[in-house]
Amino acid sequence: MTPRTAGPPAALALALLVPLAGCAGNGGPVSDDPTPPTPPTSATPASSPPPLPATAPSGTPVAPADRPTPLSATELPTLRRPTGPPKEPTDTRSTDVVAGRITRGGSGPCYGLVTDDGREYALHGPGMGSFAAGTTVLVTTGPADPAHDCGPGTPASIVKISRVG
Fold first, then answer.
1. DSSP 90-144
2. ∠ CA(157), CA(163), CA(165), 5° rounding?
3. What is the pLDDT of residues 8-37, one digit of tens each?
4. N or C end of the chain: smaller count of CB under 10 Å?
5. CA angle, corner 155, sides to 153 and 159, nearest 5?
């Protein structure tokens, strides 16, 4: 909060002089007296500026009795600027879950899958159901079974498979 330089008496005097200055060129009252007119001693509440808010000993502003109190008198916490890049990934993602389209389908146990970024997987999973080519699936994978070769792609076994959409 910045301190105010002009107090209520100066603002009141300015408020009273501005209307008089506008009337001088319109045939209104003109005075040759170099001293400005003295303002009346009692001012109406509507023409006086609002009082400055009081401050608590901690320097926190306190709302006047006729105004509502602020929502919070404390400042919001801010995060410190990082000192460098993170040492570990900040967006942890499960490495055993893959989403993509079935390229080699059928009733299994071998399936081919291609992800949106073009990675190809050779999946093995007996009893997982029938998936037609072009079906979008979400697959939880496990380590590949070396006894089964399901074609081109990164070999993996199917722990769980489900249709998407």
1. SS---TTEEEEEEEE-BSSSEEEEE-TT--EEEEE-TTS--B-TT-EEEEEEE--
2. 150
3. 666 666 666 655 555 555 555 555 555 655
4. C
5. 130
How far is 142 from 52, CA to CA, in rounded Å? 69
153: left (phi over 0), alpha (psi -120 to 50) or beta: left
Given a contact cutoff of 8 angstroms between Cβ atoms, the answer to whether 110 and 102 are in contact is: no
On whether the CB atoms of residues 138 and 97 are closer than 8 A, the answer is: yes
Q: Indicate the residue type of 88.
A: E
16: three-class secondary structure by DSSP? helix
- Tens digits of residue pLDDT in 46-87: 555 665 555 555 555 666 667 666 677 777 788 888 888 888
